[in-house]
Task: inverse folding
């Protein structure tokens, strides 16, 4: 039996760490042409008709203002080999696009070409969600890659089991 404890910030953070989730790296280009991005585990599908997904971005994130105004963004579902990139994109002040991990997507957005899944999204809606903004995007294209996605659980990156699909 689980014990009830106070729902303060440290306990809530610990509780959420015990929920396994995928890891996404979300990218866009701002109005000045600068690449922007963040890591998020708060991601899910919303609707099949229209095809909508949501991802949550902290209002204090350095790239928040860019995503508040962005018309399009890419959601990359990360693979195990992207752990260092995901950690870099989650680090305030880091040079997120250091190295040659990203190439231009057909949309012109920064593209992690070897990601298991890439969703090109057009802004559909934005909602306040406490200290986050909920970005809802309409999926306009889907890219499917080969590697298995990564699962984030108890602050650890773990390979997801392979589905056996081709």
Result:
């Amino acid at each position: 039996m689980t014990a009830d404890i106070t729902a303060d910030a440290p306990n809530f953070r610990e509780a959420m760490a015990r929920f396994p989730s995928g890891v996404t790296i979300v990218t866009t280009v701002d109005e000045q042409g600068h690449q922007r991005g963040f890591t998020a585990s708060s991601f899910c599908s919303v609707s099949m008709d229209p095809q909508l997904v949501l991802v949550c971005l902290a209002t204090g994130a350095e790239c928040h203002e860019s995503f508040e105004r962005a018309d399009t963004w890419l959601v990359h579902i990360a693979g195990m080999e992207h752990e260092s990139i995901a950690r870099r994109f989650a680090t305030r002040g880091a040079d997120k696009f250091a190295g040659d991990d990203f190439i231009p997507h057909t949309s012109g957005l920064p593209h992690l070409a070897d990601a298991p899944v890439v969703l090109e999204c057009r802004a559909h809606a934005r909602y306040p969600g406490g200290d986050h903004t909920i970005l809802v995007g309409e999926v306009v294209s889907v890219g499917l890659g080969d590697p298995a996605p990564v699962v984030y659980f108890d602050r650890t990156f773990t390979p997801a089991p392979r589905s056996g699909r081709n």
